[in-house]
Design a protein that fits this description.
alpha+beta
Length: 132
Amino acid sequence: MDIERLKNNREYEFHDRVWDDQTQIVLYYQEQSAFRIVFWDYYFANIFDQAELGIQWTGFTRDYHAVERTLDFRDEPIAIGDLDEYLNDLYTYNERMANYKDGRARECYRLICDFLAYAKETGMTVMVDEEI
């Protein structure tokens, strides 16, 4: 894994200054805040909008559709409590994202997976925040 791409990666943020209200989601390691990725919430929509119905959602799928837990931005940044839950949820999208038509969304998905996987390997806490 190329950990340098996990450091201050802003490649997937919204760059059109015409729209000032575009939300950016920020993931960073509480123990090493230089390792952070920032991406436009549009990419979350590309990943999680078509969640499988009829099953109990977990991880980011649940948070995205219910606007709760890690994506409830009313307070301070929120720590991901169970990395396995969030990684397992992300991995359920692996097959669909491997062939997804939007290449940037596909790459952003991989970056998010790698970011959480590295946190699990190293025992770091992933924090979730927003930038507007």
